[in-house]
C-alpha cells in the first residue's frame, strides 16, 4: 500500500484535484497547459501528486496555481 504524503494536515494533491474538477479540467488537459508553460510534468506524476503519494515541487505548484487560476491559499488549505 502506498503511503500518502501530507504536510501539516494539508492535502495539496486533494486540493489540486478538487479545484481541477470544479473547473472541468481533465488531467491530460492540465498536463498540456503545464507543458505550454514549459513546466515538465508527466500524467503519472500528476496522478501521484493528486493521490498524495508524490511530493510536488515549488515550480510545479506555481504552474498548477496559474493553470487553474487559483491561489496558494486555496491549494494549501
TrEMBL record:
It comes from the Bacteria. Residues 16-75 form the HTH cro/C1-type domain. GO terms for molecular function: DNA binding. Gene3D superfamilies: lambda repressor-like DNA-binding domains (1.10.260.40). This is HTH cro/C1-type domain-containing protein. It comes from Faecalicatena orotica.
Amino acid at each position: 500500500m502506498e503511503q500518502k504524503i501530507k504536510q501539516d494536515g494539508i492535502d495539496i494533491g486533494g486540493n489540486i484535484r478538487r479545484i481541477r474538477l470544479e473547473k472541468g479540467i481533465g488531467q491530460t488537459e492540465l498536463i498540456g497547459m503545464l507543458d505550454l508553460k514549459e513546466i515538465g510534468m508527466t500524467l503519472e506524476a500528476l496522478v501521484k501528486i493528486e493521490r498524495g503519494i508524490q511530493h510536488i515541487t515549488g515550480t510545479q505548484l506555481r504552474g498548477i496555481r496559474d493553470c487553474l487560476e487559483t491561489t496558494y491559499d486555496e491549494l494549501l488549505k
